[in-house]
Protein backbone atom coordinates (compact mmCIF):
# COMPACT_ATOMS: atom_id res chain seq x y z
CA UNK A 1 0.00 0.00 0.00
CA UNK A 2 1.46 3.34 -0.96
CA UNK A 3 1.31 6.35 1.29
CA UNK A 4 -0.91 8.28 -1.09
CA UNK A 5 -3.66 5.69 -1.38
CA UNK A 6 -3.57 5.04 2.33
CA UNK A 7 -3.96 8.75 3.02
CA UNK A 8 -6.82 8.96 0.52
CA UNK A 9 -8.57 6.09 2.22
CA UNK A 10 -8.18 7.47 5.66
CA UNK A 11 -8.97 11.11 4.93
CA UNK A 12 -12.77 10.99 4.43
CA UNK A 13 -13.25 8.85 7.52
CA UNK A 14 -10.89 10.85 9.65
CA UNK A 15 -13.29 13.77 9.92
CA UNK A 16 -16.36 11.97 11.43
CA UNK A 17 -13.99 10.07 13.70
CA UNK A 18 -14.36 12.64 16.40
CA UNK A 19 -17.91 13.83 15.81
CA UNK A 20 -19.80 10.58 15.28
CA UNK A 21 -18.63 7.78 17.56
CA UNK A 22 -21.36 5.37 16.39
CA UNK A 23 -20.16 5.42 12.79
CA UNK A 24 -16.60 5.01 13.95
CA UNK A 25 -17.64 2.17 16.22
CA UNK A 26 -19.36 0.39 13.36
CA UNK A 27 -16.31 0.77 11.18
CA UNK A 28 -14.04 -0.55 13.90
CA UNK A 29 -16.37 -3.51 14.47
CA UNK A 30 -16.25 -4.34 10.75
CA UNK A 31 -12.48 -4.13 10.90
CA UNK A 32 -12.56 -6.48 13.88
CA UNK A 33 -14.53 -9.11 11.99
CA UNK A 34 -12.15 -8.72 9.06
CA UNK A 35 -9.14 -9.31 11.30
CA UNK A 36 -10.76 -12.20 13.13
CA UNK A 37 -12.14 -13.85 9.97
CA UNK A 38 -9.12 -15.97 8.93
CA UNK A 39 -8.79 -17.46 12.40
CA UNK A 40 -12.51 -18.06 12.78
CA UNK A 41 -12.77 -19.69 9.36
CA UNK A 42 -9.86 -22.07 10.04
CA UNK A 43 -11.14 -22.98 13.51
CA UNK A 44 -14.70 -23.38 12.22
CA UNK A 45 -13.74 -25.55 9.26
CA UNK A 46 -11.35 -27.83 11.11
CA UNK A 47 -13.06 -28.13 14.49
CA UNK A 48 -16.75 -27.18 14.41
CA UNK A 49 -17.55 -28.81 11.07
CA UNK A 50 -16.01 -32.17 12.10
CA UNK A 51 -17.83 -32.03 15.44
CA UNK A 52 -21.15 -31.71 13.61
CA UNK A 53 -20.13 -34.36 11.07
CA UNK A 54 -19.21 -36.71 13.91
CA UNK A 55 -22.68 -36.28 15.40
CA UNK A 56 -24.21 -37.01 11.98
CA UNK A 57 -22.15 -40.20 11.58
CA UNK A 58 -23.11 -41.34 15.08
CA UNK A 59 -26.79 -40.97 14.14
CA UNK A 60 -26.62 -42.98 10.93
CA UNK A 61 -26.05 -46.53 9.66
CA UNK A 62 -22.60 -45.51 8.51
CA UNK A 63 -20.73 -47.90 6.26
CA UNK A 64 -17.16 -47.46 5.19
CA UNK A 65 -15.77 -48.71 1.92
CA UNK A 66 -12.61 -48.08 -0.05
CA UNK A 67 -13.89 -44.89 -1.59
CA UNK A 68 -15.62 -43.22 1.29
CA UNK A 69 -18.36 -43.38 3.83
CA UNK A 70 -22.06 -43.80 3.12
CA UNK A 71 -24.49 -42.73 5.81
CA UNK A 72 -27.56 -44.88 4.90
CA UNK A 73 -30.20 -43.05 6.85
CA UNK A 74 -31.02 -42.00 10.39
CA UNK A 75 -30.79 -44.33 13.36
CA UNK A 76 -30.21 -44.15 17.10
CA UNK A 77 -29.00 -47.75 17.24
CA UNK A 78 -25.35 -46.70 17.62
CA UNK A 79 -26.18 -44.98 20.89
CA UNK A 80 -28.32 -47.79 22.25
CA UNK A 81 -25.52 -50.19 21.29
CA UNK A 82 -22.94 -48.11 23.10
CA UNK A 83 -25.05 -47.33 26.17
CA UNK A 84 -25.80 -51.02 26.71
CA UNK A 85 -22.22 -52.13 26.10
CA UNK A 86 -20.36 -53.32 29.19
CA UNK A 87 -16.98 -52.37 27.71
CA UNK A 88 -18.24 -48.80 27.40
CA UNK A 89 -19.52 -48.87 30.98
CA UNK A 90 -16.11 -49.98 32.14
CA UNK A 91 -14.28 -47.39 29.99
CA UNK A 92 -16.54 -44.65 31.35
CA UNK A 93 -15.98 -45.73 34.96
CA UNK A 94 -12.25 -46.13 34.37
CA UNK A 95 -11.93 -42.69 32.76
CA UNK A 96 -13.89 -40.99 35.55
CA UNK A 97 -11.99 -42.72 38.37
CA UNK A 98 -8.66 -42.16 36.63
CA UNK A 99 -9.48 -38.47 36.17
CA UNK A 100 -10.63 -38.00 39.78
CA UNK A 101 -7.66 -39.78 41.36
CA UNK A 102 -4.95 -38.22 39.22
CA UNK A 103 -6.35 -34.70 39.48
CA UNK A 104 -6.78 -34.87 43.26
CA UNK A 105 -3.28 -36.29 43.80
CA UNK A 106 -1.78 -33.78 41.37
CA UNK A 107 -3.56 -30.94 43.12
CA UNK A 108 -2.36 -31.96 46.60
CA UNK A 109 1.21 -32.73 45.49
CA UNK A 110 1.34 -29.66 43.25
CA UNK A 111 0.23 -27.39 46.10
CA UNK A 112 2.83 -28.93 48.43
CA UNK A 113 5.56 -28.40 45.83
CA UNK A 114 4.40 -24.83 45.25
CA UNK A 115 4.53 -24.14 49.00
CA UNK A 116 8.08 -25.51 49.12
CA UNK A 117 9.15 -23.44 46.12
CA UNK A 118 7.54 -20.30 47.47
CA UNK A 119 9.67 -20.45 50.62
CA UNK A 120 12.81 -21.23 48.65
CA UNK A 121 15.20 -18.30 48.71
CA UNK A 122 17.84 -19.67 46.35
CA UNK A 123 17.61 -21.81 43.24
CA UNK A 124 13.96 -21.19 42.55
CA UNK A 125 14.66 -20.47 38.87
CA UNK A 126 16.53 -23.74 38.48
CA UNK A 127 13.67 -25.59 40.16
CA UNK A 128 11.14 -23.99 37.82
CA UNK A 129 13.24 -25.02 34.83
CA UNK A 130 13.37 -28.60 36.16
CA UNK A 131 9.60 -28.62 36.67
CA UNK A 132 9.03 -27.48 33.10
CA UNK A 133 10.82 -30.51 31.61
CA UNK A 134 8.12 -33.12 32.41
CA UNK A 135 5.46 -30.64 31.34
CA UNK A 136 7.07 -30.15 27.90
CA UNK A 137 7.90 -33.83 27.44
CA UNK A 138 6.21 -35.88 24.71
CA UNK A 139 3.69 -38.18 26.44
CA UNK A 140 4.78 -41.08 24.25
CA UNK A 141 8.30 -40.73 25.67
CA UNK A 142 6.86 -40.64 29.19
CA UNK A 143 4.98 -43.83 28.41
CA UNK A 144 8.07 -45.61 27.04
CA UNK A 145 10.14 -44.50 30.03
CA UNK A 146 7.64 -45.86 32.55
CA UNK A 147 7.21 -48.98 30.43
CA UNK A 148 10.93 -49.63 30.92
CA UNK A 149 10.69 -48.81 34.64
CA UNK A 150 7.77 -51.23 35.10
CA UNK A 151 9.24 -53.97 32.86
CA UNK A 152 8.55 -57.35 34.47
CA UNK A 153 12.03 -58.88 34.52
CA UNK A 154 14.57 -56.03 34.36
CA UNK A 155 12.55 -52.94 35.28
CA UNK A 156 13.90 -50.79 38.09
CA UNK A 157 10.50 -50.75 39.85
CA UNK A 158 10.75 -54.51 40.10
CA UNK A 159 14.19 -54.26 41.69
CA UNK A 160 13.02 -51.58 44.15
CA UNK A 161 9.88 -53.53 45.16
CA UNK A 162 12.01 -56.62 45.58
CA UNK A 163 14.48 -54.77 47.79
CA UNK A 164 11.72 -53.59 50.15
CA UNK A 165 10.29 -57.10 50.31
CA UNK A 166 7.20 -56.67 48.16
CA UNK A 167 8.17 -59.47 45.82
CA UNK A 168 8.27 -58.89 42.08
CA UNK A 169 4.77 -58.23 40.81
CA UNK A 170 4.32 -57.99 37.08
CA UNK A 171 3.10 -54.41 37.33
CA UNK A 172 1.64 -54.03 33.85
CA UNK A 173 0.36 -57.60 33.82
CA UNK A 174 -2.36 -57.13 36.45
CA UNK A 175 -5.31 -54.79 36.23
CA UNK A 176 -5.01 -52.94 39.53
CA UNK A 177 -1.25 -52.46 39.43
CA UNK A 178 -1.40 -51.48 35.74
CA UNK A 179 -3.95 -48.76 36.55
CA UNK A 180 -1.86 -47.52 39.48
CA UNK A 181 1.26 -47.60 37.32
CA UNK A 182 -0.49 -45.54 34.66
CA UNK A 183 -1.63 -43.02 37.27
CA UNK A 184 1.90 -42.66 38.66
CA UNK A 185 3.28 -41.94 35.19
CA UNK A 186 0.58 -39.30 34.69
CA UNK A 187 1.10 -37.77 38.13
CA UNK A 188 4.85 -37.53 37.55
CA UNK A 189 4.35 -35.67 34.26
CA UNK A 190 1.53 -33.34 35.26
CA UNK A 191 2.11 -32.42 38.93
CA UNK A 192 4.81 -29.88 37.94
CA UNK A 193 2.23 -28.11 35.75
CA UNK A 194 -0.14 -27.77 38.72
CA UNK A 195 2.74 -26.69 40.99
CA UNK A 196 3.70 -23.83 38.66
CA UNK A 197 0.12 -22.55 38.44
CA UNK A 198 -0.38 -22.71 42.21
CA UNK A 199 2.96 -21.02 42.80
CA UNK A 200 1.96 -18.15 40.54
CA UNK A 201 -1.28 -17.84 42.52
CA UNK A 202 0.59 -17.89 45.84
CA UNK A 203 2.97 -15.15 44.78
CA UNK A 204 0.07 -12.88 43.87
CA UNK A 205 -1.69 -13.19 47.26
CA UNK A 206 -1.83 -9.95 49.26
CA UNK A 207 0.69 -9.79 52.10
CA UNK A 208 -1.31 -7.63 54.54
CA UNK A 209 -3.88 -10.37 55.13
CA UNK A 210 -1.10 -12.61 56.43
CA UNK A 211 0.23 -9.89 58.72
CA UNK A 212 -3.25 -9.43 60.17
CA UNK A 213 -3.55 -13.19 60.69
CA UNK A 214 -0.24 -13.23 62.49
CA UNK A 215 -1.26 -10.35 64.74
CA UNK A 216 -4.41 -12.30 65.60
CA UNK A 217 -2.20 -15.22 66.59
CA UNK A 218 -3.32 -17.58 63.86
CA UNK A 219 -1.17 -20.70 63.55
CA UNK A 220 0.48 -21.68 60.28
CA UNK A 221 -1.93 -24.56 59.68
CA UNK A 222 -5.09 -22.54 60.25
CA UNK A 223 -3.67 -19.63 58.22
CA UNK A 224 -3.19 -22.05 55.36
CA UNK A 225 -6.74 -23.43 55.51
CA UNK A 226 -8.55 -20.20 56.37
CA UNK A 227 -6.65 -17.71 54.25
CA UNK A 228 -4.40 -19.29 51.65
CA UNK A 229 -6.84 -21.93 50.38
CA UNK A 230 -9.89 -19.60 50.03
CA UNK A 231 -7.78 -16.93 48.32
CA UNK A 232 -6.29 -19.51 45.97
CA UNK A 233 -9.65 -21.00 45.12
CA UNK A 234 -10.16 -19.28 41.75
CA UNK A 235 -6.66 -20.33 40.66
CA UNK A 236 -7.17 -23.88 41.89
CA UNK A 237 -10.66 -24.18 40.41
CA UNK A 238 -9.51 -23.28 36.91
CA UNK A 239 -6.38 -25.42 37.13
CA UNK A 240 -8.58 -28.33 38.18
CA UNK A 241 -11.08 -27.71 35.40
CA UNK A 242 -8.35 -27.70 32.77
CA UNK A 243 -6.80 -30.86 34.17
CA UNK A 244 -10.15 -32.65 34.42
CA UNK A 245 -11.06 -31.88 30.83
CA UNK A 246 -7.59 -32.89 29.63
CA UNK A 247 -7.53 -36.11 31.65
CA UNK A 248 -10.94 -37.02 30.29
CA UNK A 249 -9.49 -37.27 26.78
CA UNK A 250 -6.82 -39.70 28.05
CA UNK A 251 -5.28 -41.49 25.06
CA UNK A 252 -1.50 -41.29 24.49
CA UNK A 253 -0.33 -42.72 27.80
CA UNK A 254 -2.37 -45.97 27.93
CA UNK A 255 -2.11 -46.43 24.14
CA UNK A 256 1.67 -46.73 24.38
CA UNK A 257 2.22 -47.94 27.96
CA UNK A 258 -0.45 -50.62 28.30
CA UNK A 259 -2.26 -50.62 24.95
CA UNK A 260 -5.48 -50.48 26.98
CA UNK A 261 -4.66 -53.69 28.78
CA UNK A 262 -4.25 -56.07 30.40
CA UNK A 263 -7.54 -57.08 28.79
CA UNK A 264 -9.48 -53.85 28.81
CA UNK A 265 -8.28 -52.71 32.26
CA UNK A 266 -6.84 -49.40 31.05
CA UNK A 267 -9.10 -48.81 28.04
CA UNK A 268 -10.20 -45.19 28.31
CA UNK A 269 -13.13 -43.72 26.40
CA UNK A 270 -10.76 -42.26 23.81
CA UNK A 271 -9.00 -45.58 23.27
CA UNK A 272 -12.33 -47.38 23.00
CA UNK A 273 -13.52 -44.87 20.40
CA UNK A 274 -10.24 -45.03 18.48
CA UNK A 275 -10.23 -48.83 18.37
CA UNK A 276 -13.88 -48.93 17.28
CA UNK A 277 -13.25 -46.52 14.43
CA UNK A 278 -9.77 -47.34 13.17
CA UNK A 279 -9.29 -50.97 14.19
CA UNK A 280 -12.81 -52.42 13.78
CA UNK A 281 -13.91 -49.81 11.22
CA UNK A 282 -17.26 -49.43 13.03
CA UNK A 283 -17.64 -45.74 12.35
CA UNK A 284 -21.17 -45.42 13.71
CA UNK A 285 -20.58 -46.86 17.21
CA UNK A 286 -17.12 -45.26 17.30
CA UNK A 287 -18.62 -41.86 16.53
CA UNK A 288 -21.23 -42.47 19.22
CA UNK A 289 -18.46 -43.13 21.77
CA UNK A 290 -16.60 -40.02 20.62
CA UNK A 291 -19.73 -37.86 20.70
CA UNK A 292 -20.78 -38.98 24.18
CA UNK A 293 -17.26 -38.27 25.44
CA UNK A 294 -17.41 -34.82 23.89
CA UNK A 295 -20.86 -34.24 25.40
CA UNK A 296 -19.56 -35.11 28.87
CA UNK A 297 -16.69 -32.66 28.39
CA UNK A 298 -19.10 -30.00 27.16
CA UNK A 299 -21.30 -30.59 30.19
CA UNK A 300 -18.31 -30.11 32.46
CA UNK A 301 -17.50 -26.87 30.65
CA UNK A 302 -21.02 -25.49 30.90
CA UNK A 303 -21.27 -26.38 34.58
CA UNK A 304 -18.12 -24.36 35.19
CA UNK A 305 -19.08 -21.52 32.91
CA UNK A 306 -20.16 -19.34 35.82
CA UNK A 307 -16.66 -19.44 37.21
CA UNK A 308 -15.40 -18.40 33.81
CA UNK A 309 -17.92 -15.62 33.47
CA UNK A 310 -16.69 -14.13 36.73
CA UNK A 311 -13.11 -14.43 35.56
CA UNK A 312 -13.66 -13.03 32.08
CA UNK A 313 -15.84 -10.25 33.43
CA UNK A 314 -13.04 -9.21 35.76
CA UNK A 315 -10.76 -8.80 32.79
CA UNK A 316 -12.97 -5.94 31.71
CA UNK A 317 -14.26 -6.33 28.20
CA UNK B 1 4.87 -10.25 46.96
CA UNK B 2 4.02 -10.81 50.53
CA UNK B 3 6.37 -10.41 53.35
CA UNK B 4 5.74 -12.34 56.47
CA UNK B 5 7.81 -13.23 59.45
CA UNK B 6 8.12 -16.73 60.68
CA UNK B 7 8.66 -18.28 64.02
CA UNK B 8 10.92 -21.29 64.24
CA UNK B 9 12.93 -19.91 61.35
CA UNK B 10 15.71 -22.49 61.52
CA UNK B 11 13.30 -25.37 61.63
CA UNK B 12 11.63 -24.05 58.49
CA UNK B 13 14.91 -23.74 56.61
CA UNK B 14 16.04 -27.27 57.46
CA UNK B 15 12.68 -28.78 56.64
CA UNK B 16 12.64 -26.69 53.49
CA UNK B 17 15.94 -27.98 52.19
CA UNK B 18 14.86 -31.55 52.75
CA UNK B 19 11.51 -31.03 51.02
CA UNK B 20 13.14 -29.18 48.11
CA UNK B 21 15.52 -32.12 47.78
CA UNK B 22 12.57 -34.52 47.71
CA UNK B 23 10.98 -32.46 44.92
CA UNK B 24 14.22 -32.60 42.92
CA UNK B 25 14.35 -36.38 43.38
CA UNK B 26 10.69 -36.81 42.43
CA UNK B 27 11.09 -34.90 39.18
CA UNK B 28 14.73 -35.71 38.50
CA UNK B 29 15.05 -39.46 39.04
CA UNK B 30 12.86 -40.59 36.10
CA UNK B 31 14.66 -38.02 33.93
CA UNK B 32 18.01 -39.38 35.08
CA UNK B 33 16.82 -42.88 34.24
CA UNK B 34 15.86 -41.81 30.72
CA UNK B 35 19.25 -40.22 30.06
CA UNK B 36 21.31 -42.92 31.78
CA UNK B 37 19.51 -45.71 29.93
CA UNK B 38 20.14 -44.06 26.58
CA UNK B 39 23.90 -44.54 27.18
CA UNK B 40 23.70 -48.22 28.14
CA UNK B 41 24.62 -51.04 25.78
CA UNK B 42 21.83 -53.26 24.51
CA UNK B 43 22.79 -56.09 26.84
CA UNK B 44 23.21 -53.84 29.90
CA UNK B 45 19.71 -52.44 29.37
CA UNK B 46 18.37 -55.89 30.24
CA UNK B 47 20.47 -56.35 33.40
CA UNK B 48 18.65 -57.52 36.48
CA UNK B 49 19.18 -55.93 38.94
CA UNK B 50 19.54 -52.89 36.70
CA UNK B 51 22.76 -50.94 36.21
CA UNK B 52 22.34 -47.70 38.12
CA UNK B 53 25.19 -46.03 36.23
CA UNK B 54 25.84 -46.93 32.60
CA UNK B 55 29.11 -48.82 32.35
CA UNK B 56 30.50 -48.82 29.74
CA UNK B 57 29.03 -45.58 28.42
CA UNK B 58 27.94 -46.26 24.86
CA UNK B 59 26.64 -43.96 22.12
CA UNK B 60 25.59 -46.91 19.98
CA UNK B 61 21.89 -46.17 20.68
CA UNK B 62 22.22 -42.67 19.23
CA UNK B 63 23.92 -44.11 16.17
CA UNK B 64 21.12 -46.71 15.83
CA UNK B 65 18.34 -44.14 16.17
CA UNK B 66 19.61 -42.14 13.23
CA UNK B 67 21.21 -44.85 11.06
CA UNK B 68 19.35 -48.12 11.66
CA UNK B 69 16.04 -46.42 12.38
CA UNK B 70 14.73 -43.33 10.60
CA UNK B 71 14.72 -40.96 13.52
CA UNK B 72 16.32 -38.27 11.34
CA UNK B 73 13.25 -38.27 9.10
CA UNK B 74 10.86 -38.04 12.05
CA UNK B 75 12.85 -35.20 13.54
CA UNK B 76 12.76 -33.29 10.26
CA UNK B 77 9.00 -33.88 9.86
CA UNK B 78 8.27 -32.72 13.41
CA UNK B 79 10.40 -29.63 12.90
CA UNK B 80 8.74 -28.64 9.59
CA UNK B 81 5.19 -29.25 10.80
CA UNK B 82 5.67 -27.57 14.19
CA UNK B 83 7.42 -24.49 12.78
CA UNK B 84 4.94 -23.86 9.95
CA UNK B 85 1.89 -24.45 12.16
CA UNK B 86 3.29 -22.14 14.84
CA UNK B 87 3.99 -19.41 12.28
CA UNK B 88 0.44 -19.69 10.93
CA UNK B 89 -1.10 -19.66 14.40
CA UNK B 90 0.85 -16.56 15.37
CA UNK B 91 0.03 -14.65 12.19
CA UNK B 92 -3.68 -15.40 12.14
CA UNK B 93 -3.98 -15.50 15.93
CA UNK B 94 -2.40 -12.10 16.49
CA UNK B 95 -4.91 -10.48 14.15
CA UNK B 96 -7.82 -12.26 15.83
CA UNK B 97 -6.44 -11.55 19.30
CA UNK B 98 -6.19 -7.88 18.42
CA UNK B 99 -9.74 -7.78 17.09
CA UNK B 100 -11.19 -9.61 20.09
CA UNK B 101 -9.12 -7.72 22.60
CA UNK B 102 -9.39 -4.16 21.32
CA UNK B 103 -12.09 -3.70 18.73
CA UNK B 104 -15.80 -3.19 19.55
CA UNK B 105 -17.32 -6.38 18.14
CA UNK B 106 -20.72 -7.69 19.13
CA UNK B 107 -20.82 -11.20 20.57
CA UNK B 108 -17.18 -11.12 21.58
CA UNK B 109 -17.86 -12.84 24.86
CA UNK B 110 -19.70 -15.80 23.34
CA UNK B 111 -16.97 -16.12 20.76
CA UNK B 112 -14.27 -16.26 23.42
CA UNK B 113 -16.19 -18.87 25.38
CA UNK B 114 -16.70 -20.96 22.23
CA UNK B 115 -12.98 -20.80 21.53
CA UNK B 116 -12.27 -21.80 25.12
CA UNK B 117 -14.49 -24.84 24.86
CA UNK B 118 -12.90 -25.84 21.55
CA UNK B 119 -9.43 -25.56 23.07
CA UNK B 120 -10.28 -28.25 25.63
CA UNK B 121 -12.36 -30.42 23.30
CA UNK B 122 -11.10 -34.01 23.22
CA UNK B 123 -9.32 -34.82 19.95
CA UNK B 124 -11.10 -38.18 19.74
CA UNK B 125 -14.37 -36.33 19.01
CA UNK B 126 -13.11 -35.03 15.67
CA UNK B 127 -10.44 -37.47 14.57
CA UNK B 128 -12.73 -39.68 12.46
CA UNK B 129 -14.43 -36.94 10.40
CA UNK B 130 -11.09 -35.17 9.95
CA UNK B 131 -9.56 -38.42 8.74
CA UNK B 132 -12.34 -38.77 6.13
CA UNK B 133 -11.97 -35.10 5.16
CA UNK B 134 -8.20 -35.30 4.73
CA UNK B 135 -8.56 -38.53 2.80
CA UNK B 136 -10.94 -36.86 0.34
CA UNK B 137 -8.47 -34.02 -0.06
CA UNK B 138 -5.63 -36.50 -0.58
CA UNK B 139 -3.86 -34.93 2.41
CA UNK B 140 -3.25 -38.03 4.49
CA UNK B 141 0.50 -38.59 4.84
CA UNK B 142 1.36 -35.03 3.94
CA UNK B 143 2.70 -31.98 5.70
CA UNK B 144 -0.20 -29.68 4.87
CA UNK B 145 -2.86 -31.93 6.42
CA UNK B 146 -1.29 -32.06 9.84
CA UNK B 147 -0.26 -28.40 9.64
CA UNK B 148 -3.87 -27.37 8.98
CA UNK B 149 -5.21 -29.46 11.86
CA UNK B 150 -2.53 -28.26 14.30
CA UNK B 151 -3.11 -24.66 13.28
CA UNK B 152 -6.84 -24.92 13.92
CA UNK B 153 -6.52 -26.71 17.25
CA UNK B 154 -3.88 -24.38 18.64
CA UNK B 155 -5.51 -21.15 17.49
CA UNK B 156 -8.15 -20.91 20.26
CA UNK B 157 -5.65 -21.00 23.12
CA UNK B 158 -3.26 -18.68 21.26
CA UNK B 159 -6.08 -16.19 20.65
CA UNK B 160 -6.91 -16.28 24.37
CA UNK B 161 -3.34 -15.57 25.40
CA UNK B 162 -2.87 -12.86 22.76
CA UNK B 163 -6.18 -11.22 23.61
CA UNK B 164 -5.21 -11.03 27.27
CA UNK B 165 -1.97 -9.27 26.34
CA UNK B 166 -3.75 -6.93 23.92
CA UNK B 167 -6.16 -5.86 26.65
CA UNK B 168 -3.24 -4.50 28.64
CA UNK B 169 -2.03 -2.06 25.98
CA UNK B 170 -3.09 1.57 26.63
CA UNK B 171 -5.70 2.91 24.17
CA UNK B 172 -3.85 6.19 23.64
CA UNK B 173 -1.10 4.38 21.73
CA UNK B 174 -3.50 3.40 18.97
CA UNK B 175 -5.27 6.73 18.85
CA UNK B 176 -2.02 8.62 18.46
CA UNK B 177 -1.07 6.33 15.62
CA UNK B 178 -4.47 6.79 13.95
CA UNK B 179 -4.33 10.54 14.24
CA UNK B 180 -0.89 10.38 12.64
CA UNK B 181 -2.66 8.84 9.65
CA UNK B 182 -1.60 5.22 9.94
CA UNK B 183 -4.02 2.60 8.57
CA UNK B 184 -5.28 -0.24 10.78
CA UNK B 185 -2.80 -2.82 9.53
CA UNK B 186 0.11 -0.45 9.98
CA UNK B 187 -1.09 0.41 13.47
CA UNK B 188 -1.15 -3.25 14.43
CA UNK B 189 2.25 -3.85 12.86
CA UNK B 190 4.12 -0.86 14.25
CA UNK B 191 2.34 -0.08 17.54
CA UNK B 192 0.44 -3.09 18.83
CA UNK B 193 2.71 -5.96 17.80
CA UNK B 194 5.87 -4.69 19.52
CA UNK B 195 3.92 -4.17 22.73
CA UNK B 196 2.23 -7.56 22.53
CA UNK B 197 5.51 -9.34 21.78
CA UNK B 198 5.67 -11.18 25.14
CA UNK B 199 2.21 -12.59 24.37
CA UNK B 200 3.38 -13.65 20.92
CA UNK B 201 6.37 -15.47 22.44
CA UNK B 202 4.15 -17.17 24.99
CA UNK B 203 1.59 -18.28 22.42
CA UNK B 204 4.40 -19.39 20.11
CA UNK B 205 6.06 -21.62 22.70
CA UNK B 206 2.77 -23.19 23.71
CA UNK B 207 1.83 -23.86 20.12
CA UNK B 208 5.24 -25.29 19.23
CA UNK B 209 5.23 -27.56 22.29
CA UNK B 210 1.71 -28.76 21.53
CA UNK B 211 2.61 -29.59 17.89
CA UNK B 212 5.87 -31.25 18.93
CA UNK B 213 4.14 -33.54 21.44
CA UNK B 214 0.80 -34.27 19.71
CA UNK B 215 0.14 -37.96 19.12
CA UNK B 216 -3.44 -38.95 18.18
CA UNK B 217 -3.79 -36.86 15.00
CA UNK B 218 -0.25 -37.63 13.85
CA UNK B 219 -0.80 -41.35 14.44
CA UNK B 220 -4.03 -41.35 12.48
CA UNK B 221 -3.21 -39.01 9.60
CA UNK B 222 0.53 -39.53 9.03
CA UNK B 223 1.20 -43.23 9.47
CA UNK B 224 3.53 -43.65 6.48
CA UNK B 225 7.16 -43.85 7.56
CA UNK B 226 8.26 -40.81 5.54
CA UNK B 227 5.66 -38.54 7.16
CA UNK B 228 5.76 -39.76 10.77
CA UNK B 229 6.47 -37.21 13.46
CA UNK B 230 8.66 -37.93 16.49
CA UNK B 231 5.92 -39.24 18.85
CA UNK B 232 4.57 -41.63 16.22
CA UNK B 233 8.08 -42.68 15.19
CA UNK B 234 9.08 -43.44 18.78
CA UNK B 235 5.83 -45.28 19.49
CA UNK B 236 6.37 -47.48 16.42
CA UNK B 237 10.03 -48.33 17.14
CA UNK B 238 8.90 -51.29 19.16
CA UNK B 239 7.37 -54.46 17.77
CA UNK B 240 5.13 -56.88 19.58
CA UNK B 241 8.07 -59.00 20.71
CA UNK B 242 10.96 -56.62 21.32
CA UNK B 243 11.08 -53.03 22.42
CA UNK B 244 14.44 -51.43 21.52
CA UNK B 245 14.55 -49.30 24.67
CA UNK B 246 18.08 -48.05 24.01
CA UNK B 247 17.12 -46.60 20.63
CA UNK B 248 13.87 -45.22 22.04
CA UNK B 249 15.64 -43.43 24.88
CA UNK B 250 18.40 -42.06 22.66
CA UNK B 251 15.73 -40.69 20.30
CA UNK B 252 13.80 -39.37 23.31
CA UNK B 253 16.78 -37.47 24.65
CA UNK B 254 17.28 -35.89 21.22
CA UNK B 255 13.55 -35.01 21.09
CA UNK B 256 13.48 -33.54 24.61
CA UNK B 257 16.59 -31.37 24.17
CA UNK B 258 15.34 -28.76 21.64
CA UNK B 259 12.09 -28.21 23.45
CA UNK B 260 13.93 -28.21 26.78
CA UNK B 261 16.29 -25.47 25.56
CA UNK B 262 13.39 -23.48 24.12
CA UNK B 263 11.38 -23.75 27.33
CA UNK B 264 14.44 -22.91 29.45
CA UNK B 265 15.28 -19.77 27.46
CA UNK B 266 11.68 -18.58 27.39
CA UNK B 267 10.66 -19.91 30.83
CA UNK B 268 9.40 -16.48 31.87
CA UNK B 269 6.90 -16.54 29.01
CA UNK B 270 5.95 -20.17 29.57
CA UNK B 271 5.15 -19.49 33.21
CA UNK B 272 3.16 -16.38 32.38
CA UNK B 273 1.28 -18.36 29.75
CA UNK B 274 0.54 -21.24 32.09
CA UNK B 275 -0.85 -18.82 34.63
CA UNK B 276 -2.77 -16.58 32.23
CA UNK B 277 -4.06 -19.65 30.45
CA UNK B 278 -5.27 -21.31 33.60
CA UNK B 279 -6.12 -18.32 35.73
CA UNK B 280 -7.73 -16.09 33.18
CA UNK B 281 -9.21 -18.96 31.28
Global Rg of chain B: 23 Å
As for the CATH topology of the largest domain in chain B, it is MetI-like fold
The gyration radius over C-alpha positions of chain A equals 26 Å
Give the H and E element order of chain A.
HHEEHHHHHHHHHHHH
| Average pLDDT score of chain B | 85
Report the oligomer. Answer: heterodimer
CATH first level of the largest domain in chain A: Mainly Alpha
* CATH architecture annotation of the largest domain in chain B: Orthogonal Bundle
Number of domains of chain A: 2
What is the first-to-last residue Cα distance of chain A?
Answer: 32 Å
Indicate the low-confidence ranges of chain A by residue numbers: 1-19, 312-317
Q: What is the architecture of the largest domain in chain A at the second tier of CATH? A: Orthogonal Bundle
Strand content of chain A: under 5%
Class of the largest domain in chain B in CATH? Mainly Alpha
> By CATH's scheme, which homologous superfamily of the largest domain in chain A applies?
MetI-like
- Categorize the overall geometry of chain A: flat
Helix content of chain A: over 70%
Strand tally of chain A: 2
Any idea of the CATH topology of the largest domain in chain A? MetI-like fold
In brief:
The complex is a heterodimer of chains A (317) and B (281). Chain A is mainly α and 317 residues long. Helix content of chain A is 78%, strand content 2%.
What attributes characterize this protein structure?
heterodimer, A: 317 residues, mainly alpha, MetI-like fold, 2 domains, two-stranded antiparallel sheet, 2 strands, disordered N terminus, disordered C terminus, B: 281 residues
